[in-house]
Amino acid sequence: MNILVIGGGGREYGIVKKLAEDPRAEKLYVLPGNGGMEDIAECFPIKATDLEGVCGFCREHPVDFAVVTPDDPLAMGMADRLREMGIPCFGPSKAAARIEASKIFSKQLMEKYGIPTAKAVSLDSLKDALRYISENEPPMVVKADGLALGKGVFICRTREEAQAACLELMENRLFGESGARVLIEEFLEGPEVSVLSFTDGKTIVPMVSSMDHKTIGEGGTGPNTGGMGVIAPNPFYTEDVAKTCMERIFLPTIKAMAAEGCPFTGCLYFGLMITKNGPKVIEYNCRFGDPEAQTVLPLMETPLLDAMLACENGSLAETPVRFSQRAAANVVLVSGGYPGKYNKGLPIAIGGLEDGTELVHAGTKKTENGFVTAGGRVLNIVAVADTLEEATKKAYRNAERVSFEGMYMRRDIGRTALDHIKRG
Ligand code: AMP
Ligand code: GLY
């Protein structure tokens, strides 16, 4: 079977690596891929958002199955286009991708179907937004309606901060049309959990839970990034919480999407907060998370291709999907200056890594003289071990074997989780 993966970050590396291990994968194409994937797949320089370019590639190459991973192409209707060409694919339709691409769509869905989430109002003029802020008590959370590279959320402790956020989004159009409408929502508190799931639109199978570490600074300080590290499983996601999530959130969500005429197929990502009133949805993503995917997938025992094909064929209920009981930790190595300005093209020194450790390429380029940096998030060190403590130690031990000028990593990935486990 010839498989095409669309995307080029660490998440796609994790997916491609897993698919490359499958004896059924004859050819593995990646658009555009990255430097580190060139040894395991054929990469072509076509952007993930270039719909015409991708369709053209599919006319010229024998593609039997496509995996569309990033949010932008999904929101643009890439999966629909490929299916129209007769190519089965893993990834939701444009209509279903609205669950991520429009925060107002997903909020209305949750309200209509009684799915627990933060209370919110949607506002489509700056005047109304400013009036709402003046009449309500902070803290409050301002969110751009549309996609904003994960940066469209502002946690506002004061009215001034909330006003400034609305001004940036709605007037200065910091994220273009994504900020034409905003949501202002209640501020929730509690540990966060990411749950990625496979779904064929009728059945939903959650993967191992995980915890992302979003800020650049230790202890949740500094600006948000695409993700600085992940641990899995997430100890705050107990069996009881998992049961509640399945009954009140996961199943109701896929039923709601089907009832709205846009059944969701592919990977549905639940960003949850475990509040004192129970788990609530912070956000949905219509795709695997990055860096969650490359942390969780090494724990998957069932071939990834089986689960992906079942999502597209509607046979997930008959497909066993198993994960190991072990733990994984991922430490992200970033360029100095990230998430602000940073240099590219710096040579990377990579020593040998221990068994059970994966060097995941995210922003690297292959040159005649070895790998060089080519992005903000450069590499991930993913370690698997019997316990979370061992996995975390192993990831850090191996991170020390990699270096490039200005390299930075957070030193506290997994600390909150391990402290929680120790407290019992
Ligand atoms: P999002 O892009 O929607 O995942 O939001 C980014 C981050 O903002 C989340 O991971 C949370 O840490 C935080 N956040 C979003 N919504 C809320 C909320 N209603 N209350 C508290 N924190 C929030
Ligand atoms: N790690 C969060 C995301 O992929 O959106």
Task: Set down the secondary structure blueprint.
Blueprint lengths: L2 E5 L2 H11 L7 E5 L9 E2 L7 H10 L4 E4 L2 H6 L1 H7 L4 E2 L3 H8 L1 H11 L6 E4 L2 H10 L4 E5 L8 E4 L2 H13 L10 E5 L5 E8 L4 E3 L4 E2 L2 E3 L3 E4 L4 E4 L6 H21 L6 E10 L2 E8 L7 H4 L7 H10 L13 E8 L14 E2 L6 E5 L2 E4 L2 E4 L3 E9 L2 H12 L2 E2 L11 H9 L1
The protein binds adenosine monophosphate and glycine.
- CATH superfamily placement of the largest domain: ATP-grasp fold, B domain
Largest sheet: 5 strands, parallel
End-to-end Cα distance, whole Å, is 47 Å
User: What's the count of strands?
Assistant: 24
At the third CATH level, what is the topology name of the largest domain? D-amino Acid Aminotransferase, Chain A, domain 1
Low-confidence segments, given as residue ranges, are none
Q: Strand pairing plus helix content: what structural class?
A: alpha+beta
Level of helix content? 25-40%
Oligomer: single chain
CA radius of gyration is 21 Å
In what range is the share of β-strand residues? Answer: 25-35%
Taken together, the total number of domains comes to 4
CATH structural class of the largest domain: Alpha Beta
Strand order of the largest sheet: 3-2-1-4-5
CATH architecture of the largest domain: 2-Layer Sandwich
